[in-house]
Amino acid sequence: MSLLISLIMALMAMAFFTLLERKYLGYSQLRKGPNKVMFLGLPQPMADAMKLFLKEQNFPVSSNKLYFVCGPMLSLVLALFLWSLFPSNNPGWWFKYSVLFFLCVSSVNVYSVLLSGWSSNSKYALLGSLRGVAQTISYEISMALILLIGLVVKMSMDMSKISLVSYSMILFMLFPVVVMWFVTNLAETNRTPFDFAEGESELVSGFNIEYGSSLFALIFMAEYCNILFMSLVTSLVFMTCLLKFLSIGMIVFTMLFSSLFIWVRATYPRMRYDLLMSLTWMMFLPLSIGVFTMIKLIFILF
């Protein structure tokens, strides 16, 4: 029952996070954003869901229809798998290696992007999926190393145990590492300025160009569920000490980090692809290895 409630609450949070993003972007561009649907536009996510799921689903003539449908479904299922790890105060079940499971599921998510772009049988979709796969694989390595730095300090791989027992504050101890983690999260979730899998200006919406109505809604839902879960992991691993003093601290810090995704989208333009590859392989990977080695030496010596 607790798992079912977590999944329903995650989907509700995802729906209203889209409204928050549209409001945030609207005010950043000196306009109101959605405000016509009933009171302050609050039911707007429900109206968007009805519009998407009630539209007719079209399939490209030359597409592989089975895999064309399986790609978006796989991405949403993997996103919901991650939310099964939500560390509540009274968890229904304990997962000893939940962080390892998180890394495995996030790496498998590459296949949903590749499957969606390949099954569309469109050159633009295939190019977008290949760029997305190359980008995600490049950042998976540094993301895992940065996360391992936090886990070495926490001395646990169980999210529930970290949230209930850990008292260390990595945000202030290793602030550059947290900045690298946030930038890696932007690339991992295909968000601006690293949204190369969905480059509208050069790839005409990228790997999801052939998707519409309900299948596009599944891709959309999976992306925003992943954003919220990455923000949850950030607050859990790097802000655990402050969570002890706030009854709703995890929710507050998760919303704080997720709002940073919107702020970056409203502020920065898209980065060049070669600069992104240089950033991950030439900067983040050596830095993360160096910091991880330094932390291990400190633990061994002291």
Automatic annotation (TrEMBL):
Q: Name one GO biological process term.
A: aerobic respiration
Domain of life of the organism encoding this protein: Eukaryota
In what way does this protein cross or attach to the membrane? Multi-pass membrane protein
Compartments annotated for it: namely: Membrane; Mitochondrion inner membrane
The transmembrane residues are 66-86, 93-113, 133-152, 164-183, 215-238, 245-266, 278-301
Kindly report, in one word, the top-level EC class recorded for this enzyme. translocase
Enzyme Commission code(s) on record: 7.1.1.2
Q: Which UniProt keywords apply?
A: Membrane, Mitochondrion, NAD, Transmembrane, Transmembrane helix, Ubiquinone
Q: Which GO terms describe its molecular function?
A: NADH dehydrogenase (ubiquinone) activity; NADH dehydrogenase activity
- Listed PROSITE patterns: COMPLEX1_ND1_1 (PS00667), COMPLEX1_ND1_2 (PS00668)
Q: Which GO terms describe its cellular component?
A: mitochondrial inner membrane
Question: Which Pfam family is one of this chain's hits?
Answer: NADHdh
Provide the family line: Belongs to the complex I subunit 1 family.
* PANTHER family, alphabetized: NADH DEHYDROGENASE SUBUNIT 1 (PTHR11432), NADH-UBIQUINONE OXIDOREDUCTASE CHAIN 1 (PTHR11432:SF3)
| Name under which the protein is recorded | NADH-ubiquinone oxidoreductase chain 1
Q: Which organism is it from?
A: Hirudo nipponia (Korean blood-sucking leech)
